[in-house]
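User: I'm curious whether this sequence folds into something compact or stays loose and floppy. Could you predict its structure so I can see for myself?
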Amino acid sequence: MFTARSSTVLVAVAVAASLVACASPERAVGPGPSMQPRDAASTDALASGGKGARPINVMDACDGPSFNAVIGPGTCARPNGVNFNEFVAQLTAHQSAGAWHNAPAQTDAWVGDALIAVNKGGEVHTFTKVAQFGGGIVPFLNQLAGTPNVVPECLNLPPSEFMLPGGTDQETLDATGDIKFQCCIHPWMTTTVRVKSK
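Assistant: Here's the prediction. I'll summarize afterward.
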């Protein structure tokens, strides 16, 4: 159940949702000129990859009716799933909501590989390269996730950084070491890639 304090969260989430609502299906949904929204079949073919392609599945289980009622129309494209109040309860208890995650959370790759994030959820997400994990752009979710400090990379994100459901984002790995990615909306959704030279 929501309290007056929760209204701040709704405003912040609505702002993030409105950024996404401005996105048309024809525009790119991630860095690079070739990254266009794809239907499920072509997205799965891309994510299965060939040599040098490392898929990352960006997942959620939002319940469209409850998320759309609380945050606004178009927030969640799924017909059912985890109710919004249950989502908040999970965050309150665990600082994360299990169905909202990147898979895998950790992977190995080689310099030159393409890391391909595929949004298989019903909400908008980002797959943003960060120096350190931290908070995202929604203060209420940051508070519940225990990540109060917004990471610099999540500030002033261009519209192309937001992945619509079914959208993709691609990053070519050009240096060795641990490279970190997180969702700037749901900051507990993280992936660490250990990049090695061939």
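Summary: The domain at 6-24+40-196 is CATH 2.60.40.420 (Immunoglobulin-like). The chain has one domain: 6-24+40-196.
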